[in-house]
Amino acid sequence: MAGLPQQVMSGFRLDLGPLKEPLGFIRVLEWVFSIFSFATTGGYTGSTDFTVHCSPKEGELVTASFGYPFRLSGSGFNYPNCTAPGYSVKMHLQNDYSSSAEFFVCVGVFGFLYCTATLVLYLGFQHVYRETTRGPVIDLFLTAAFAFLWLVSSSAWAKGLTDVKAMTNPQTIVNNINLCVKDKCSPDRFPAMGRLNASVISGFLNLILWGSNCWFIYKETPFHKPDHASAAVTDETGPQ
């Protein structure tokens, strides 16, 4: 077992040539956008504001903060008690959208790890990757699986983000608070969602990248190569 790391390192042959080919170049793009997808979603925090008017002349700004994984029902805020000045009522946003957000981040993290592993294989062990048909075939099926996961997770997160936007809209919050009667509450600042919009876009961009990369990996598999081999044999055995 002690000699295994030495055997691995002895087989390592750094070759940056694959980065000039679509197979390696697209994998680098997948690596970058996988990081971007889970980082923009997983690190998000935001807030939404509305104003409570306990008296016609004075208003108190209420801020409701939330963030990943978007379990909004756990995001609380203090609503001023207009009937008892100086006191407040603890309230929460509504609904839980953590499943779609966590699924999307999970796909991004595993996509990043797979890209890292395959880039090491492409750049350091290209001779091992190409010497048997098993490597390209496994790579093809896993890449196709990730393309499908990006489709499902991006679609789910796009729907989840739409719902998050609706439930964190200050007008929606005001409408859902029973104490906001007789124009005592007014919506204020809408939460900044540009970062989350970018995460959804990057998710569908990952779908395109992983899906298109299947073709270039397919060309390395025996599913594609026999066509060229049979054509060569036909030329050699054709009429003299």
Terminus-to-terminus distance: 58 Å
Low-confidence stretches: 1-8, 227-240
Structural class: alpha+beta
Query: How confident is the prediction overall: mean pLDDT?
Result: 83
**Cα gyration radius (Å):** 27 Å
How many separate structural domains?
1
In which range does the helix fraction lie? 55-70%
Morphology call: rod-shaped
Q: Give a short account of the largest sheet.
A: 3 strands, antiparallel
- Quaternary status of these chains? single chain
- Number of DSSP helical runs: 8
Could you give the order of the helices and strands?
Answer: HHEEEEHHHHEHH
Strand runs, count: 5
Task: Describe the structure using short key phrases.
single chain; 240 residues; alpha+beta; three-stranded antiparallel β-sheet; two-stranded antiparallel ribbon; 5 strands; 58% helix
Can you tell me about this structure?
The chain has 8 helices and 5 strands. The protein has helices at about 5-10, 20-40, 100-125, 125-130, 135-165, 170-175, 195-220, 225-235, and strands spanning about 45-55, 60-65, 75-80, 90, 185. It has one domain. The chain is rod-shaped and about 80 Å long. The N and C termini lie far apart (about 60 Å). Helix 2 (about 20-40) runs antiparallel to helix 3, helix 3 packs antiparallel against helix 5 (about 135-165) and helix 5 (about 135-165) packs antiparallel against helix 7. The protein has a 3-stranded antiparallel β-sheet with strand order 2-1-5, covered by helices on one side. It is α+β, with helices and mostly antiparallel strands and about 240 residues long. The model is unreliable at about 1-10 and about 225-240 (pLDDT under 50). Its main location: membrane. It is a multi-pass membrane protein. Keywords: Glycoprotein, Membrane, Transmembrane, Transmembrane helix. It is found in: Membrane. InterPro entries: Marvel, Synaptophysin/porin.
